[in-house]
Structure formats: structure tokens, C-alpha cells
Structure to design on (383 residues):
């Protein structure tokens, strides 16, 4: 029995990260993604393109909102409507936004701070575009991004489009979270070509306006949008040529709280919409939610069971002794990295350290969620 538990825990520990993508890669593709815009591809005339409403969600972003608006105004797309959804900002954010009224920027302010999704909901009510684009203040959008993004909606089955995150560390390296982001973008592409994304990039994504009618302010908008697509017979896809650039957080101690908040909000969304796990209703999308979300959140518990059973089975054969040695080496590297900042910066240590940090946050968030903690309001991470 103990050996069976060991193997269940071992498979559960790697399922979401390795086995699930392998299964997806063997499933037939249901669609193709458009080729990247090249020098020989003409951009359609403005009068034949859908109008876009770009909603920037902000809370007390006086230090960064001007840079974000200048970046957005350089985006090469028409017709484009720009709306700033201010979630009851108490600093100079709203005043700065009003300075841009003459350049077409619209301020949508909520007087009561009820969270990011509530501010987005109010802004959606003011939007007039056929497609609604959402972006965070910290995300920089390349000038040609919306021209690339809108082409995905030429496919009538596509209901939402997610950008690809480009993580730029302050030292220019792409390791730790950057490597993790690259892995997530690869997994998103696999999902896009099958049952559709189960969650979009919350910092930069777009949705058909008619799919924004069911806007659950208590669920993350990136998951809510993917769910609305599945409900209405659409799919959400990832766009490899639509990039959103963002830096690591200015205060690394705040990164853990961001991860904690993300998981609690994800668990809340799944608890509010358990029907999404019904394969008779949602088909392959349901399998992907189970594999990508639920099994990912179960990893820390599988890891704990795996370590305990490996210790108990150490005298049962060379395989279990090897498994124990490998786990001790892995967690030993993480412990040394935690105690030594110089080791933590090394490439060989940063990925294991980030992996354990993420799973510790998942375990912590799960316990807090089960104790009744919920999060709707948010304080954007300073990057």
C-alpha cells in the first residue's frame, strides 16, 4: 500500500508540469494560429477593422500612469478607444488621466474600491468597441501589438486572445520566474491548438465585447473570460506574436504576496464555477482546467506525501534510496539558496528555489482559502 501511495504521489508531483503537456502534444490540433505579420502582409484599412476599446486598470498609479498612457498612445491601431479604469484611486492618478482627455483618453472611476474586476466592469459599460482589450499599468505594449492581436479574431470561433508575457529581469537575465514564464507560454500554445486556454495573461488580453456580459467581479478576469468563451462555444487562444513586456517586482519581498493572492483568487474562481470541471458539458476544456489548475494546486501536497513515503521506503530497494537522495539534494540546494543570496542568484539554484517558493505559496494559499480568506481588492506590484 505504501508503495502505491509513493507512485501516486510521484506521478501527481510531475503530472501537471510534464505528463499533461505530453498528453496535449499527442492530441490532434483543432485549429491553426495565424502567421506573424510580415513585410509582405498588408494591414487592412481602418474602415474594415473592428473598433477596439483598450481598458487600463489602475489603483494609485500616479508614479506610472503617465508612462503607461504615453506607451499606449504610440500603439499603431485605429479605431482605438482608450479607457482608464480607476479603482477608487486616492492619489493623483485620476488627475493625470484627465490631462489626457484632449488626446481621447476616457476616465472611468469607481468611487468604492471593490477590486480590479469591478473597475473593469464599470469601464466595459462605457466601452464602445467590438473587442475589449485589457492591460495593466506595468505592462508595456509594442506599437504593432494590436495589429497582430486583432487578426486572431478573424477566426469566428476565437472569443478571446492572450498575449505572451516577456519577463525582463533587472539584470537582463531570463531565469527563475523568466524561465517559468517561457514554460507557461509553451503550454499555452499547446492548449490554444486543442481545447483553448484555461486562463489568459491577466496583464494583456482581449475579448469579444458580447462575451463580457457575464462579468464575475469575484473571479479573476483572465479565468472568467476563458470560462465565458467555453460557455458560449468559443475558445481562448494565445498569440505568440502579441507580446506584453514587464519587469520583475521592485521589492522582491512583495512577490510572495502576489503569488499568494493569485492562487487564492484562482481557487475562489473554481469554487464559484465548479461546473467547469464537468467533461460532459465542457469536454476537453474541462480536462485542461483539471490538469492545468487543480492538479497544479495539488503539487505541494503530492511533494509532501512523496518525501514522507520515500523516507519510509528507503530500506525497500535501490530505487527508493535513489529517490530519497535526489529529493535531499533538491531541497538541500533550495535551503542553501535561501540562506545564501549569492547562491540564490546562480542559475542552477534559482529555478529549484522558484519552484519551491511557488509551491509553498500554493500550500499557504490553499490553507488560507479553506479557512475562509477571499481577495477581491488588489494592490498592483511595483515593478
Amino acid at each position: 500500500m505504501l508503495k502505491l501511495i509513493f507512485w501516486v504521489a510521484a506521478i501527481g508531483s510531475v503530472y501537471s508540469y510534464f505528463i499533461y503537456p505530453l498528453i496535449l502534444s499527442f492530441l490532434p490540433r483543432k485549429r491553426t494560429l495565424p502567421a506573424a505579420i510580415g513585410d509582405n502582409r498588408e494591414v487592412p484599412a481602418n474602415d474594415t477593422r473592428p473598433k477596439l476599446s483598450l481598458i487600463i486598470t489602475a489603483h494609485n498609479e500616479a508614479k506610472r500612469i503617465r508612462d503607461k498612457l504615453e506607451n499606449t498612445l504610440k500603439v499603431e491601431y485605429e479605431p482605438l478607444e482608450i479607457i482608464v479604469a480607476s479603482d477608487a484611486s486616492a492619489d493623483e492618478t485620476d488627475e493625470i488621466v484627465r490631462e489626457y482627455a484632449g488626446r481621447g483618453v476616457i476616465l472611468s472611476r469607481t468611487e468604492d474600491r471593490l477590486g480590479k474586476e469591478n473597475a473593469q466592469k464599470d469601464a466595459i459599460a462605457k466601452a464602445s468597441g467590438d473587442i475589449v482589450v485589457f492591460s495593466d499599468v506595468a505592462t508595456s505594449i509594442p506599437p504593432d501589438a494590436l495589429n497582430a492581436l486583432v487578426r486572431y479574431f478573424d477566426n469566428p470561433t476565437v472569443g478571446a486572445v492572450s498575449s505572451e508575457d516577456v519577463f525582463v529581469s533587472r539584470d537582463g537575465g531570463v531565469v527563475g520566474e523568466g524561465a517559468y514564464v517561457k514554460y507557461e507560454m509553451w503550454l499555452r500554445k499547446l492548449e490554444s491548438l486543442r481545447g483553448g486556454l484555461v486562463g489568459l495573461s491577466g496583464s494583456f488580453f482581449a475579448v469579444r465585447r458580447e462575451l463580457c456580459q457575464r462579468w464575475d467581479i469575484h473571479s479573476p478576469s483572465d479565468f472568467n473570460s476563458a470560462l465565458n468563451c467555453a460557455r458560449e462555444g468559443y475558445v481562448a487562444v494565445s498569440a505568440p506574436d502579441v507580446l506584453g513586456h514587464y519587469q520583475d517586482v521592485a521589492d522582491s519581498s512583495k512577490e510572495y504576496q502576489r503569488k499568494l493572492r493569485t492562487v487564492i483568487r484562482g481557487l475562489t474562481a473554481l469554487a464559484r464555477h465548479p461546473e467547469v470541471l464537468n467533461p460532459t458539458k465542457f469536454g476537453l476544456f474541462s480536462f485542461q482546467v483539471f490538469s492545468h489548475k487543480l492538479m497544479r494546486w495539488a503539487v505541494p501536497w503530492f511533494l509532501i506525501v512523496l518525501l514522507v513515503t520515500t523516507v519510509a521506503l528507503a530500506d525497500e530497494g535501490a530505487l527508493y534510496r535513489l529517490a530519497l537522495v535526489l529529493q535531499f539534494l533538491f531541497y538541500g540546494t533550495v535551503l542553501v539558496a535561501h540562506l545564501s543570496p549569492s547562491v540564490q542568484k546562480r542559475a542552477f539554484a534559482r529555478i529549484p528555489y522558484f519552484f519551491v517558493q511557488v509551491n509553498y505559496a500554493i500550500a499557504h494559499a490553499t490553507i488560507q482559502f479553506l479557512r475562509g480568506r477571499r481577495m477581491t481588492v488588489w494592490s498592483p506590484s511595483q515593478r
